Amino acid sequence: MIPFDILPHLPFITAAIIRFILVITVSLHILLTKRNTSSAIGWIGICILMPAMGTILYLMFGINRVRRLARKLVDNSQLDTSGSNHASQWIHNPQGDLAPLAVMVRKLTDRPLTEHNKITCLHDGDNTYPLMLQAIADAEQSILICSYIFRNDKTGRDFIEKLSQAHKRGVQVRVLVDGIGSGYFLSPVYHRLRRAGVPCSRFMHSLLPWRMPFINLRNHRKILVVDGKIGFMGGLNIADENLVLQHPKEPVSDTHFQLEGPIVRQLAEVIATDWCFSTGEILKGDIYFKEHVADSNIAARIVTAGPDSDLEKIEFTMMQAVTLARKQVRIMTPYFLPGSRVLSELALAALRGVEVDIIIPQHSNHPLMDWACAANIGPALDAGVKVWLVKPPFNHSKLMVVDRKWTFAGSSNMDIRSLRLNFEINFESYDETLAGNVDDFMSKHKHIRLTHHHLDQRHNLIKIRDAAVRLFMPYL
Fold first, then answer.
1. What is the enclosing helix (H) or strand (E) of 116?
2. For residues 260 and 263, what is the distance between their CA atoms, to the nearest angstrom?
3. Which CATH architecture has domain 71-93+115-304?
4. How confident is the model at residue 79 (pLDDT cuts 50, 70, 90)?
C-alpha cells in the first residue's frame, strides 16, 4: 500500500521518474549514434535541462532517419544498381601528384573514373537554359530532371511547357523537385506538372508532424539527363533571377556544365536513385542508362554527398585535394561557412606555401550567412588564406580548382549544411584545359580583398551579432 502522506506528492514523483527515464533513454541513444562530440554533448544538455521538450526536439531533428531509410532500401535490394560499373576501357587512372586523390575518391564513392567525356562550362541562365530546353525538345526516349528551386515564373513555365510536350509525345519524363526549395506549403510547379500528367514528386515532403524532421534535409541537386546521353549539372536553379542579361530585380549569376560521355550514366544513376527514394519506382533500361563515349577525352567522375550512405563524401574529397595541392587552391562559393576540419586544411595549405584563394560574394542573398562568415573567417586569414569579395550581381557558382589540373564543381556550397545535411552532387575532372578555363573564370572575379582591417572596422555590436549567428552555422 502507498502511505497516505505520499499520495499528495505522487504526481510529482511520477513526473520525476518519467523525466529521469526520458533523460537516460535519450542520452543512451545519443551516445550510441552521434559521432560528433559537440553535437552529442549539446543534445544531452538539452535533454537534461528540458527532458520533455528536449526529447521531442531530438526525435524530430536529432535522429538521421534518412540514413536508416537508405540502408533499408539497399538491404532490401530496392535500388537498381546494375550497370553501375562502366566498361573497363572507360576506367582511367591518372598519373602525377593527384593520382592518390583519384584512388581515394574511387574507394570513397565506388564509382570509376571514366575517360572519353566532354564537359562544357556554361554561365548564367541566358546561356544555359536555351541548351537545356532544346535538349528537352529533342528528347526521344527519356527525361530525368531534378531541381532544388523550380519557380512558377516565365522560365519555369517554359520548362513546364517543354516537359509537358515531351510527355505527350511519349517520352518517359520524371521530374523531382525539393520539398522545401520549390515550395513547402504551395508548390505551383508540382501541381501544374501533375495536372499535365507529367510524373512529378516532391523530395522528402510531408505536412505530417512526425515527418517534420525532413524539413531540415534538402535535395540541393540540379540535374537534367536526356535520353541517357546528354546531361546538365551545376549550381543553376530554374528561375527568372538567373537570366542576368535581362536585368531581373535580384539577379543571380551562376555556373552550370553540359556533360557527354560515360559520366552521364553516373549522373542518371544519381537522379534515378533519388526518384526511387522519393517514389519507390525503379527506373531501368537503356532509355535511361546508356553507355557511350564523347568526342573528347576528359577524365571525370560523379561525387555525391548526403545524410545517408554518402555522408561527407564531398567534404572528404575537398580535404584530400587541398592536402595534395602543391601550388594553388582556388575556391568560389556563394557561402563560406565550412567546419573546423576544412578550415584547418586550407590554413595548413597556406602555411606550407600553397596559394589559397577563397572567392565569395560581397553580399549574398542570405545576410545571416554573411554575418556568420565574418565571425568565422579570421583563422583562415591568420594563416595567409586570401579571401576575395565579388561585386554584384550575386554569384552563386560552386567551383574549386587545384594546381590548374583538377576541377571540382556542382551543387555543393562550402558550408556545413551543404557538406553534412543536404543531398549534393559534384563532378571531379583531371583535365588541365577545363581546370585552366574554370580557374581563369574565378580569377576574373577577384575584386576586393578581405582583410583583418575590414573585420576590425566593424562596430562591437556588429561583432557580437555576427558571433551569435555563427553559433547556428549547421542550420543556416
1. strand 114-123
2. 7
3. 2-Layer Sandwich (3.30)
4. very low
